[in-house]
Amino acid sequence: MLIVNRRHFVQAGMLLLPTAVISAPAYVPGRDQPAWDYFFFDERFAEARRLAGEMCGATEPTPVQSDITAIWTDGLGRAGLTAPMTIKGVTTESFYFCLKILLSDQVTVDAQVSRIDRDLHLWTIRTDNHFKNGTVSWQNPSRPA
Amino acid sequence: MAEPLPPGVSAEAMAATLERFSQIVGKEWVFTGEQMVSYHDPYPISNDDTRYKAHAAVAPSSTEQVQEIVKAANTSGVPLWPVSRGKNFAYGGAAPVLSGSVVLDMSRMNRILEVNEKFGYALVEPGVSYFDLYNYLQAHGLKLWLDVPDPGWGSVMGNALDHGVGYTPYGDHFMMQCGMEVVLANGDVVRTGMGAMPGNNTWQLFKYGFGPYVDGIFSQSNFGIVTKMGIWLMPEPAGYRPYMITFEREEDIAEVIEILRPLRLNNVIQNAATIRSLVLDAAISSTKSQYYSGAGPIPDSVARKIMVDQEIGMWNFCGALYGPPPIADALWTVIRDAFAKVPGAKFYFPEDRKRRPDILIHRAETMRGIPKLTEFNFLNWAGGGGHIGFSPVSPTTGTDALKQYRMVSGRVREYGFDYMGLLAIGFRELHHVTVIVYDKTNPDERQRLDKLFNVLVQEAAAEGYGEYRTHIRYMDAIAGTYKWNDNALMKMHQSIKDALDPKGILAPGKSGIWPKHLRDGRQA
Questions:
Q1: How far apart are CA B175 and CA B230, in angstroms?
Q2: Of A64, B263, B257, B121, residue with least CA distance to A87
Q3: Span B18-27, average pLDDT
């Protein structure tokens, strides 16, 4: 199986997000080892920007605007199958909701979420590489009848 | 809280049935306890936590396993609630109408059995999502387009069976289905249409076969479990040009619909286009708090500001032209000239839209069959993340459109919500899909929504408008409005139910159809 750097996936996805600011490297130089594989924040909200700055640690935060489609289809979906991940975010609820459902279709997910204000949720999702005993559309062997 | 048991089934009988299911599918594919969270309604409305809760779930991988599960359920009387992928979230997700049911989760049955480019169809199992089928077409370089609803993670089969709609010329999904394989409640398997003839090669080409056409009775029903379905796919057109026309005033909807009807009937408007309201479109790229911090629906002044900021109208008509450029040019001339009669109408192609994210840029992908999750953005409008669809059907007339809009938007605002609606344009009718976004964590708001929804159902029915689809909580209420001639249609449904599923093990309560032993006190 081709294993591609997770960060590469996210960057590829973010190219489709017009307002996203992509910056390399994956982790902020000079800081400790990252606690999160990804840190997503909704760049439209000042509180999300502030919390991202405070909490991202050595992980380069990724700006989003609610819609998870490009990030997921361009890489995060496959990345979720290759190794356990810890993802943190300060986003709208739909971003968190969609990510949790998408990951839950593939692997076991442990999620914690709290509501910060009317628009934002602070959340952490941890996955393991034990494929879930549930919905597994990623298998999709598409073999003949 | 312990999982509920269905009426008439003891804990011992349930345990024995689940043990039998484990023997059929393997114990790792039978789910109970904490594993049941993903089978709950993600947007609950009821404040009674015991409602709409499954006891367990079982996930087969083949038609043969479905047959064995059904036979075991028939022996014990344990009711099953079949779901394709369980992603029908605004309508209850994977949650059953009857608490204690066992969810029959067919998401493991996710094979794309055939894609035929020459004739333009696919044969799929229930677990195949729009993302799956789209990826398959892309990976194999097939010149075929999907028609997708808004959530790309849904089941191709499940959406069609629930009468879902999309946005290309193939937007009526059940119209595009052709040929089914169905497991009946006694475990028998039937193939419909041409599939009933051994050796036939037109199962996905000709719907009707010989004799009564029965596919329809397996949609929105509990008469059988569909395990394979053909779906027609659109050949990739020689050209594609999406467009948007905006209209400034609420009352414009009447004139717009009158202009639109002959264009749609004559296929000048080729696709299942939509006319979307201001707040629904604004909510794709912004939240209410960015414009308004007060309570209740936004005032008109705020609506005007959003229109200017986002270059959208009070109504926004998104359509697309499909075919060779000369044909598209000719069609566009007719469409543009027709709608130019509406004062203040503005016309856009994607290259005219500079703001990002933008509603036309987003809809342009959907109208060419690219599966997405973007529409979930609108859940963030007011915070709280719940939503439900109220979807009455009306004729394509300006009078009906304006009347429906005023009825529904007035009530929605009276109950403290913003009106977020769209008119999905069928050949001769409008689906008026009103999305009500609410705070699912707030019991008072859930109760208010519940009252509102029941009022909407009754008021619409009083004017002759019926819903085409609904959340599990309102299936009885909606079924009760289709009551012509002393509920003759429901009585016929019940006769079919009793004949095909005498023990009532398949999806009790689906679409208001209950088995005989659970009908007491329910209208028929």
A1: 11
A2: A64
A3: 97
Q: β-strand A61-64 against A38-42: which pairing, if any?
A: parallel
Between the two ends of chain A, the Cα-to-Cα distance in Å is: 26
| Calpha distance B476→B484 (Å, rounded) | 15
Query: Is the distance from CB of B523 to CB of B480 less than 8 angstroms?
Result: yes
Whether A16 has a pLDDT exceeding 60, the answer reads no
Average pLDDT value for chain B: 96
Residues 6+ positions from B364 with CB-CB distance below 8 Å: B242, B320, B350
- In the annotation, is B208 catalytic? no
The DSSP code for B8 is T
Whether the model clears a pTM of 0.95, i.e. scores above it, the answer is no
Whether ipTM tops 0.85, in short, is: yes
Chain B residues touching A18 at Cβ < 8 A: 356-357
Is B43 labeled as catalytic in the residue annotation? no
Over residues B126-133, the mean pLDDT reads 96
Q: Which residue is it, tokens 């290759």?
A: A82
Query: Of B39, B91, B121, B134, which is the active-site residue?
Result: B91
Q: Provide the percentage of residues in chain B whose pLDDT is more than 70.
A: 99
Q: Which residues pair with B320 in a beta bridge?
A: B242
Tokens of B354: 């500079």
Distance CA B222, CA B73 (A): 14
Read off the amino acid at residue A84.
P
pLDDT band at A7 (very low <50, low <70, confident <90, very high): very low
